[in-house]
Predict the structure.
Amino acid sequence: MRRAVIRVYGLVQGVGFRSWVLRRARRLGLRGFVRNELDGSVLIVAEGDEESIKRLAEECWRGPPLASVERVDVEWSEYRGEFDDFVIEY
């Protein structure tokens, strides 16, 4: 079990990116959250199986149809087990 902080840059707000991430993260069995940041990026904190997190990060390069992703940064850390579900934070 691992934890990752994923930051997605580009045209990723106002295009359904958070709900798109929510569906994929839940399908992959991940826990954590996704939220919009003030700088226009989307922040994802995900915990779970390392391969599932890697898959989510890879899928973020594509995003929903209206998104235009310029960069995806992933920072790995130790699993903390602090989440019960995967949610959208507002």
Observations:
- DSSP finds two helices and five strands in the chain.
- The mean pLDDT is 98.
- Residues 17-27 form the longest helix (11 residues).
- Residues 4 and 82 are 13 Å apart (CA to CA).
